[in-house]
Amino acid sequence: MEYKTVTSEDMEQVGKQIAKSINGGDVILLYGELGSGKSTLTKGLVKELGVKEIATSPTFALMNVYKAIHPKIKKVVHCDTYRLRDKNDLEDVGITDYLYKPDTLCIIEWPDKVSHLFTGKNNKKISIEYIDSERRKIITE
Ligand SMILES: Nc1ncnc2c1ncn2[C@@H]1O[C@H](COP(=O)(O)OP(=O)(O)O)[C@@H](O)[C@H]1O
Ligand SMILES: [Mg+2]
């Protein structure tokens, strides 16, 4: 699928749309430059899964775990490896307890830094491309 957005509200809507086709155990690999809208898309997506907390960017926390209210998904894990120093740091905070678990959705910003972790089958790639300061193109597999 391909989407185009001009505002961050549109980007949240794309996240909500993507949430409708998510299954428990999926791992979303979110590609795109800094400021392209990965965290904005995530915000819409997790809202649609019934997460009540505001999904702020976990850039400083590395990993945030949210409780979802959804028939198939009980937990949403949001990781941002942008400031990751050592590629083992995400394992140290417990990511492998969540990856590919049937009642859990994981969303990973900058997945290339820790690509060795994504050996399961249920990976879903989403790429965001900058068109200009406001317009973005989103490509899903
Ligand atoms: N079409 C758009 N989609 C998403 N964000 C947009 C768009 N146009 C402008 N923006 C702005 O770009 C920034 C995107 O930030 P963020 O979602 O944190 O990006 P990332 O997580 O990829 O670094 C926000 O400040 C947002 O307001
Ligand atoms: Mg981000």
UniProtKB/TrEMBL annotation:
It is found in: Cytoplasm. It comes from the Bacteria. GO terms for cellular component: cytoplasm. Pfam families: TsaE. Keywords: ATP-binding, Cytoplasm, Magnesium, Metal-binding, Nucleotide-binding, Transferase, tRNA processing. GO terms for molecular function: ATP binding; metal ion binding; transferase activity. GO terms for biological process: tRNA threonylcarbamoyladenosine modification. Belongs to the TsaE family. NCBIfam families: T6A_YjeE. This is tRNA threonylcarbamoyladenosine biosynthesis protein TsaE. It comes from Candidatus Magasanikbacteria bacterium RIFCSPHIGHO2_01_FULL_33_34.
